[in-house]
Design brief:
The complex is a heterodimer of chains A (382) and B (282). With 382 residues, chain A is an alpha/beta fold. Helices cover 38% and strands 23% of the residues of chain A. Chain B has a single domain, classed as Rossmann fold (3-Layer(aba) Sandwich), CATH 3.40.50.970. In chain B, the strands form 2 sheets. In chain B, strands 2-1-3-4-8-7-10-9 form an 8-stranded mixed β-sheet, sandwiched between helices. The radius of gyration of chain B is 19 Å and the shape is globular. Classes of the chains: A alpha/beta (382), B alpha/beta (282). β10 of chain A pairs parallel with β2 of chain B, so a sheet runs across the interface.
């Protein structure tokens, strides 16, 4: 198969471009989008590449339509993605919930900018963390990933597709305006270097008849995609294992939503990924995600130079959240600092995880500039 | 001359028995339009496995749940946006979007306009009962002036949308409107629509005695049908009438029947163009 960009070597590209190339290498063949800063370059790259790999790239009338088309494409058998930023992400929330409820594998990228409302379109922020997790209505479970470098944007995009396919779930990638537009060296692997996961399809008639069942005991039903003679009925209403609407029996809702939670939480060790830096003997920990982690790494080095035993826990997965790892960390260290580009979102999760075993302090910053390492250092050393 | 099979054979062949009974009220017209659609499919000999039914939210949007086909019951107003993804991913599938007037023309109005503009290869069957039936009889963007709904209890004061005409203007390859009383025209229109490339739309005035008729002194389906006979004007006759004579009337008939290339064909050409421009193909 011929690719419209060089593979098996490094390139110097934007975060947005890296997401697009990774998506194509992960098997994405359907993209629907709507122009928005700072995610438009993902769309533009997809528009350029998709026809060349016999895929679809289409500009919809709004972000509601974009995510809807992506979900439709997924049920027709394609790996599908859309990308946006704050205002568009808000519009996508209802259908994001639909994807959760119908267990549709899709990837949604949100290159975060300052908000609320139109806010700061060209400046980075991390104000959509809680929205990515809890933005759609009702109890739900999904996966949220957060890259901090252009290479990670590439790697986590491939991972996002694999997780979406494996667990039949929407996966959100939370980048930011800085990462979207920043150029860095990225290694674009050969296709044979990449592990690509494809969704389970029904192995037999019985499995096809229960598109929302659990025949394998892992909580993830095989997906009887359209046009294969399965005659699958898919609805956002509360439904039983066969997909029939059953909206007035409490146990049907309990079973369905219970399984949607379980299929992610039972596999959270496999889903959650993080990196540690100088944590082994640390008495001060920094917990961060996304773009701020870059400053946090530097801050740890600077603190070590000053004799402070600091370390970093960098989260690549925002949700499901690893409360246990935070608690273990809290047992080890004296204090945890949480630098983030909002007025406190990750902070609350970390505090819950720390469970009172260490003090947790927020280093909040809004306005569109990433924390400098010095800003973090100064807060730690006082 | 059309040979009509019994309704029972149509029911047994196409409906999911385990999903019955339907949620529809006595006198509701949705079942009739469903029957027209199934008869059209049957007459054309289309396979159940090559059609996907897509819908939004509302009474008529429950239809894909009752038919034994692939079906996607989506969010309110968004059926055609979902359909865009299905059709472009697997162009071999025929798509029927079964929608209500509130679903397609209010909350989904923008998707409707743009799906038609793109000439997305979909057949839209629109149930127009002038009301939001499922939520209890609120006025819709189709409600004719003066008619009552729970959110305009003193009579609708806004202008109505003409869905079929909107489809013509936005570029649909086929657009027709009938009442559920127009049995043969209805079936024939759907047959035509299903065979054409691009966007095709058939709108049906459909009685909702419970949520709409009751509030407008027409408590039964026959009363609503008689009212349809009074307010509808066939297209040929309407052409000879003055605008003021058509005030408050609803024109029925075929409004567009043309063969512009559909979105699938356009996108295939686009792929060829892209590969040529990039030097991948001659």
């Amino acid at each position: 198969m011929r690719y419209p960009f060089p593979v098996g070597r490094s390139d110097f590209i934007q975060g947005d471009e890296a997401v697009a190339r990774a998506a194509i290498l992960a098997g994405c063949r359907f993209y629907a989008g709507y122009p928005i800063t700072p995610a438009s370059e993902i769309f533009e790259a997809m528009a350029l590449y998709m026809p060349l790999v016999d895929g679809v790239s289409i500009q919809m009338e709004d972000e509601i339509g974009s995510i809807a088309a992506v979900i439709g494409a997924s049920w027709a058998g394609a790996k599908a993605m859309t990308a946006t930023s704050g205002p568009g992400f808000s519009l996508m929330q209802e259908n994001l919930g639909y994807a959760v409820m119908t267990e549709t594998p899709i990837v949604v990228v949100n290159m975060m900018r300052g908000g609320p409302s139109t806010g700061q379109p060209t400046f980075p922020a991390q104000g959509d963390l809680m929205q990515a997790v809890w933005g759609t209505h009702g109890d739900h479970m999904l996966i949220v990933l957060s890259p901090s470098t252009v290479q990670e944007a590439f790697d986590l995009t491939i991972r996002a597709f694999n997780l979406a396919e494996k667990y039949r779930t929407p996966v959100v990638i939370l980048g930011d305006a800085e990462l979207a537009h920043m150029r860095e060296r990225v290694y674009i692997p050969n296709p044979d270097e990449i592990e690509v996961v494809n969704r389970k399809l029904p192995a037999n008639e019985d499995e096809a008849k229960l598109p929302f069942g659990d025949p394998h005991g892992d909580g993830v039903p095989p997906m009887p995609i359209f046009g294969r003679g399965y005659r699958t009925y898919v609805t956002g209403l509360t439904h039983d294992e066969s997909g029939h609407p059953r909206t007035v029996e409490p146990e049907v809702q309990q079973k369905l939503i219970g399984r949607i939670f379980r299929k992610i939480l039972d596999h959270k060790d496999e889903i959650i990924s993080y990196e540690t830096f100088e944590l082994d003997d640390a008495e001060i920990a920094i917990v961060s995600t996304g773009i701020v982690s870059r400053s946090a790494i530097r801050a740890v080095k600077m603190l070590r130079e000053r004799g402070v035993r600091a370390g970093l826990l960098k989260l690549s997965t925002v949700w499901p959240f690893d409360f246990e790892v935070i608690e273990e960390l809290a047992e080890q260290v004296r204090k945890i600092y949480v630098p983030e580009m909002n007025l406190g979102q990750l902070y609350h999760l970390v505090r819950e995880g720390a469970n009172g075993k260490a003090e947790v302090e927020l280093i909040a910053k809004i306005g569109g500039e990433v924390h400098t390492p010095m800003e973090i250092v100064e807060r730690v050393v006082g | 001359m059309m040979y009509l099979k019994s309704s029972y054979s149509i029911r047994d062949k196409y409906l999911r028995k385990d999903m019955l009974p339907t949620i529809f009220c006595p006198g509701c017209g949705i079942g009739s339009v469903l029957q027209f659609t199934l008869r059209a499919i049957d007459d054309l000999g289309l396979s159940q496995d090559e059609i996907v039914w897509v819908s939004g939210i509302g009474c008529s949007s429950r239809v894909p749940g009752y038919v034994n086909f692939d079906g996607l019951h989506t969010t309110h107003g968004r059926a055609l946006a979902f359909a865009t993804g299905i059709k472009l991913t697997n162009p071999d599938l025929k798509i029927i979007a079964f929608m209500g007037d509130g679903d397609s023309a209010a909350i989904g109005g923008n998707h409707l306009i743009h799906a038609i503009r793109r000439n997305l290869d979909v057949t839209a069957i629109i149930i127009n009962n002038f009301t939001y039936g499922m939520t209890g009889g609120q006025v819709a963007p189709t409600t004719l002036k003066g008619l009552r709904g729970t959110t305009a209890p003193y009579g609708q004061f806004e202008n109505p949308f003409d869905i079929a005409q909107l489809a013509v203007t936005a570029g649909a390859n086929y657009a027709a409107r009938w009442t559920v009383f127009n049995y043969l025209q209805g079936i024939n229109s759907i047959k035509k629509a299903l065979q054409k490339e691009g966007f095709t739309l058939v709108e049906f005035l459909s009685p909702c005695p419970v949520s709409f008729g009751r509030r407008n002194r027409m408590k039964t389906a026959p009363e609503l049908i008689r009212w349809y006979q009074k307010i509808t004007v066939p297209l040929a006759k309407a052409k000879k009438m003055k605008p003021e004579e058509l005030e408050g009337k609803v024109v029925i008939g075929e409004f567009a029947d043309r063969d512009r290339p559909g979105l699938v064909r356009e996108y295939r050409e686009y792929i060829k163009r892209a590969k040529k421009m990039m030097g991948w193909e001659q």
